[in-house]
Amino acid sequence: MKTETEKLKLCWLNLLKNEPIAAVDDVLFEKIILGEHEDEEASDTLLWLIMGVRSNELAVLDVAMLNWLAKQQNTTTDTSEPVRKNLSKALDQFFESAQRAKLSKCLFFTIEHCKNLRDWLRKYYIDIGRDPEGSMLNFLALNQPHRRFIPMWLDICRLNGVLPTHYGRIALLGLRSLPYNGPGSGAPPQSLVVDGLIQWGESLHRHSGDDERLSWIVQCRLMLEDLEQEAHEEGKQDWLRIFDRHTTDPNVKRWLCEALAENYSDIGLDVKTAIQEVKGISKKVDQALQTKASVESETTWFLKPKPKQKKMRVITPTIRRKIQPFADLFPR
Measured by CB atoms within 10 angstroms of the end CB, which terminus of the chain is less buried, N or C? Predict the structure, then answer.
């Protein structure tokens, strides 16, 4: 005998077949409650609903998601705060869902309409947990088929305009995840990440002084450790010398010295605690993500993930809220 949640899943799949936009609407606006899953995000609910479905049903979902997004762009006229907050969360979960369900049409649309989407989504920013533009950029950062977004990532690192400071982390993720086929295919990831860290650090200090020092140091250390793991055959990198070739900013160099401290003997306890906490959380996150239902084998993903992408830390909104106050140290 089927449980109530299994019956609900069948009803929803039937709705997806007959009224696809309504089915997506029910999930993203959290109109569906799944008993033991009721505390989870819309993307968790969607992943459970499509677990084990056939590829043709995933194709229907992919198109339905895009049609739902178009409907929101074309019909949303109510700008009251409750409506804005609800739509902000739904849009955030749209891109989170597209990433986790590996929806290729949603990705292609995001790539082709990146600028227009950013301009529209920015109006719905509430906070780090309800940030549609950030969620879209994270989706794009992890699935880039080419290198044409390098100028955009570097521009975001400079925090030009009214961008939240944590967008620098998303941009660094974008630079770190760029396709690279060796010499002759453009600047290597190491060079781009160093440039991004410098641009972000200079901007943070210019706007906030040392207030954002801890965030930059932790992110820098994690990024540089990740680069060293990938290039382990080259031995320990001389990051001070490498950064010297890219910047003369004394504040970035001072922060870098703290990030590179071997045994934390020359840095404050706050940095040591934050880095250790982040690494501890990352292990828990890895374990949590391993228990999530995977639908990758059920879908055709035209952009196969590169090996280095598997090492990147990706924090979902659900987990992000559970690990405050260190949530803002992670890329979205």
Answer: N
